[in-house]
Amino acid sequence: MKIFPLTRPWRHLRRYNQIIRVLLKYGFGEIVEAASGDLITRFGEKIIPRARMPKAIGATSPERLRLAIEELGPTFIKLGQILSLRPDLIPPDYAAELTNLQDNVTPIGFETISKVLTEELPEPGMAIFKNIEQNPLAAASLAQVHRATLQDGTAVVLKVQRPGARAVIEVDLEILRDLAGILRNYILEKFVQDPLELLAEFDKSIHRELDFRQEGRQIDQFRNCFAGEKTIFIPQYYAAYSTARLLVMQMVAGIKASDLAQLQAAGIDCAEVARRGVHLSFRQIFEFGFFHADPHPGNIMILPDNIVAPLDFGMVGQVDELTIDSLGDLLVGILRKDVNRALRALEDLTGAEFLLENQALRVEVTSLINNYTGIPLSELRLNALMQDFFDLVRKFRLRVPSHLAMMLKALVTVEGLARQLYPAFDFFQELQPYILKIVRRRFEPRRMLSAGTLVVDDLLNLVADLPRKMRAIVTKAAAGKFAIQFQHRNLERLIEELKHASNRLSAALIIAALIVGSSLVIQVSGGVRLFGYPIIGIIGYLVASILGIKLIWDMTRKKQR
């Protein structure tokens, strides 16, 4: 068991206490109960409360989870936002609710912002900026955004990291790692993915977001991808003025894609904007393999002449050609009622083995395909198809890579926005050329030659390496050192319960022996007596009573936990 050193700051214990109380407040006592034994042993009952509190009245489980996350602050909000992009891990109602997470907080004073600017800029801010507006455009838990103007008159925005944000996140990550380790030991079977592995991915993601230079480089990458594209606008990133805690980016003055009334009043062609927005995502994924992972309506601005301008490049994803090929096979298999092709594609996408032999999965995939048989492409909804797909993934506990899950979620979000802008939008009609391109490029001579070369290289390496490995196996077997290792998972709790059971059984036998022995001694005449009975027999009864009371107390306390 991992024990905190005595030098660990007290704020960790207070934060533990706060997290536990918030979980109890919103009715997640089962999580607290799973972790309580370890935490109470470590910190004591006064630090880790065990009493359940009433659930938030009138709220569903997904709503209570969102409220708890919002109350717990920036680290948990970011984790919730990432989970909202992972429908392979959580049910659709939870994923939908987590998309509503609000990261709006009370703005900090401009004096504090000025101090950060002074620390981050190589020269006084007013030597770079003609002016900086003191009232923020937006205030979130990690950063605050202010409008400013460069000396040449260019309108920019400053994304300034809140002081202390990194320290809070580091403390929360340490606590989350500890809690994930505890939950992993007790309720791993309830998770599709190991919580420690998921937390490791989240750790990398949030540290990338904390370094604003990384976001700036991603802006530049998008600008390079869409260089010369007149229907798409990517703002300029000013690397010379940006640091890990300060991002300077060209101001984008437009209308949010979700504001239909303003778009129509401005004369924007919503059908054309929907088409351009969808093709923006298609090109990112299928041509560049580098995509905006959170293209919700608030992150997309519409400029005059129906120009689409994506914002907030902190969360991006990357996908390789092999994954795209397998996804194309899955879609083709579904649309052509080819179960074997769909199952082989699932094997490639999830890394699972023997899916073709899994009869229960075959039945489910066949049922899924039949549900979409005969439906015209114009009536097919990606959202419904992906919901059925992720239901299947969760049911059979298949592991979908995070970048693939985020990519599919991004496509679903884009489809929803396109239909919001133009209800008659035919998403699959626009997607069809890209699927055909995916299928055709597999048979391009260049790719086939490259794949053949790799196969030959692998065979040559196998032939060259096989004798050495066979010799090593035979040598170990001859020396009696050949062994097969078995690794158990999640048996610690069972072993602990068996220990408790054996201890109780031993105590019960001792108590029974004392009672029987004392009863025999009581019948013997002579010896030292108390109240007319042999004192040894009375002592035996007394010891048996004490041990019995202690045994009952331990069993009752264990049930309460």
Major beta sheet, specifics?
5 strands, antiparallel
Secondary-structure-based class equals: alpha+beta
Helix content: 55-70%
How many helical elements?
21
Count of discrete structural domains: 5
Q: Whole-number radius of gyration? A: 31 Å
Number of extended strands = 12
Residue share in β-strands: 5-15%
Overall mean pLDDT stands at: 82
Please mark out the parts with pLDDT under 50 across 5 or more consecutive residues, or reply none.
1-10
Shape: globular
Distance, first to last CA:
19 Å
Features:
single chain, 561 residues, alpha+beta, 5 domains, five-stranded antiparallel sheet, three-stranded antiparallel sheet, 21 helices, disordered N terminus
Structure description:
With 561 residues, this protein is an alpha+beta fold. The protein folds into five domains: 10-103 and 180-193, no CATH class; 104-179 and 194-251; 260-442, no CATH class; 451-489; 492-560. The chain contains 21 helices and twelve strands. It has helices at residues 10-25, 29-43, 61-72, 74-84, 92-98, 110-120, 125-128, 165-187, 195-210, 212-225, 260-265, 270-288, 321-335, 339-350, 359-371, 382-395, 402-421, 427-441, 445-478, 492-523, 535-560, and strands spanning 129-132, 138-139, 143-150, 155-161, 246-250, 255-256, 290-292, 300-303, 307-310, 316-318, 529-530, 533-534. The strands form four sheets. Strands 1, 2, 3, 4 and 5 form a five-stranded antiparallel sheet that branches. The protein has a three-stranded antiparallel sheet with strand order 6-8-9. Strands 7-10 form a two-stranded antiparallel sheet. α1 (10-25) packs antiparallel against α2 and α2 crosses α8. The protein is globular and about 115 Å long. It starts with 9 loop residues before the first helix and ends with a helix.
